[in-house]
Amino acid sequence: MVINTNVSAETGARLLSESSNLLAKSLARLSSGSKIVSPEDDAAGMAVSMRFDAQINRIAAADANVGNAISFSQTQDGFLQKVGKALDRMSELATLSQDVTKTDSDRTLYEKEFLTLQNYIKDISTKKFNSIGLFTANGVTVTTDSDSESVTLVGGTTVLATGFYLANVDLSVGTYANATTMTTNVNSQANAASALSNVMAALSQLASDRAGVGANITRLNSTHDQLGVLNDNMAAANSRIKDVDVAQESTQFARYNILVQAGTAMLAQANQTPQSVLKLLG
């Protein structure tokens, strides 16, 4: 029997310390909901989880980009619908102006509305979405995933940006070399016939442009759905790495709690053992 070294107490203290540390980690996991509360818990898992977290955030950002692009395309189509109605009316006016029973004075009345609609279309061609031109010669490019992959929206070149000079109104960039020679009014049968030809060409292009914008919206909606599925799968994979299984961890917590209480009681007993030496000295 010895007095200076209580091996039982030292062993009990060490085991109690280990149990206390395990209890503290279990408590931290349960309170945080994460099974990786410090790097040493799972160094590799922590590294993978950090990359997953960053990718999930990028996916959310790409999804926001796609959502804004959908709004951009829907706004485009809204204006193109109005352009279509204006062109319909202009074609009607050009046809009415070819009536042989109308005088040039009558046609001048049609011309006023015709020119007003031209200016209305020209005004639409300058419209912007958050300072970005809606109708540009080149389409807009949208980032569609977490790896900076992007797509340029088809149909970015529209009737408002490809040079349909309706009665010599330059609506944007322009592709017709002889634009300045095109009809400027419907104040005669000949001019009305030429104007009608231009309007019909514009209507044909507008139909193609609206189909392109519709394809953009379909493409972007599919991308939005795809990003949603990808985000769910990435979140599930990340959860398996870092999220704590509460049922399993609560069982471990109960175990560590009992070990701490038992270790505390046994350390107290071990500290009392050297007192038996006093009986030998008595």
Give short descriptive properties of this protein.
282 residues, mainly alpha, two-stranded antiparallel sheet, rod-shaped, single chain, f41 fragment of flagellin, N-terminal domain, 4 strands
CATH-defined superfamily of the largest domain: f41 fragment of flagellin, N-terminal domain
Q: Tell me the overall shape.
A: rod-shaped
CATH topology of the largest domain: f41 fragment of flagellin, N-terminal domain
Alpha-carbon Rg, integer: 39 Å
Number of domains: 2
Biggest sheet, spatial arrangement of strands: 1-2
Oligomer: single chain
CATH architecture of the largest domain: Up-down Bundle
What share of residues is helical? 55-70%
Low-confidence stretches: 162-184
User: What structural class do the secondary elements suggest?
Assistant: mainly alpha
Number of strands: 4
**Approximate strand percentage:** under 5%
- Series of secondary-structure elements, N-terminal to C-terminal: HHHEEEEHHH
CATH class of the largest domain: Mainly Alpha
Tell me, rounded to a whole number, the average pLDDT: 81
Please outline the helices and strands.
Elements: H1 7-32, H2 43-96, H3 104-124, E1 128-129, E2 132-133, E3 141-143, E4 150-152, H4 189-242, H5 246-272, H6 277-281
Antiparallel strand pairs: 1-2, 3-4
Brief sketch in words of this structure:
This protein is mainly alpha-helical and 282 residues long. Helix content is 66%, strand content 4%. The chain has helices spanning 7-32, 43-96, 104-124, 189-242, 246-272, 277-281, and strands at residues 128-129, 132-133, 141-143, 150-152.
